[in-house]
Design goal:
Blueprint (H helix, E strand, L loop, with lengths): L8 E4 L8 E5 L7 H12 L3 E5 L10 H10 L2 H16 L6 E6 L1 H13 L3 E5 L17 E4 L9 H11 L1
Parallel strand pairs: 2-3, 2-4, 4-5, 5-6
Antiparallel strand pairs: 1-3
Length: about 170
């Protein structure tokens, strides 16, 4: 990536060279074996699945380590990395690209939709704390999955997001 150096991920390549690509964005733990297994599940469904690594190889094993990773993330670098992956995905398979992320990655699935306009984005429990002005150029269809008892990504945040989307 120009200005960022090398980026990394885990690629699960399907048999069909014309498959659409899904960029998977890890939780705050980093690109661990669980997310790699999810990439294999997407592959089994016929997608090219690239699990991106926004933490440059770092994988946390406890909450403190995970929090340190998320706090250390440089948002502008992560945005550029995700935009580069969307561009890469548009030049592979059939050119269609979606994003899917969980928790930390769910928020980055939304941020990628805002920054790079993939064909679709899925948010699982990710932060949707964005201003309505930031949503004006959004063209990517979104699907969000949220829990009503979650204290962090709570119904108030999700309700405000839905209102801002309107």
């Amino acid at each position: 990536v120009p200005g960022l150096g090398n980026v990394a991920g885990y690629l699960a390549e399907p048999e069909d060279p014309n498959a659409p690509t899904v960029l998977l964005i890890h939780e705050w733990w980093g690109l661990n074996d669980h997310i790699k297994a999810v990439a294999q599940e997407f592959k089994a469904k016929g997608f090219r699945a690239l699990a991106v690594d926004l933490f440059k190889g770092s994988v946390a094993t406890d909450r403190e380590g995970a929090m340190t990773q998320t706090r250390g993330l440089v948002a502008s670098e992560a945005r550029a990395t995700m935009a580069a992956w969307v561009e890469w995905a548009r030049n592979t398979g059939n050119g269609r690209v979606g994003t899917c992320g969980w928790c930390f990655g769910g928020g980055w699935s939304l941020q990628t939709a805002l920054a790079a306009s993939p064909d679709a984005s899925v948010i699982y429990y990710g932060s949707v704390k964005v201003e309505s002005a930031d949503l004006t150029g959004l063209t990517t269809p979104l699907m969000g999955h949220f829990g009503t008892l979650d204290k962090g990504i709570n119904p108030q945040m999700v309700g405000a997001f839905e209102k801002n989307l309107r």
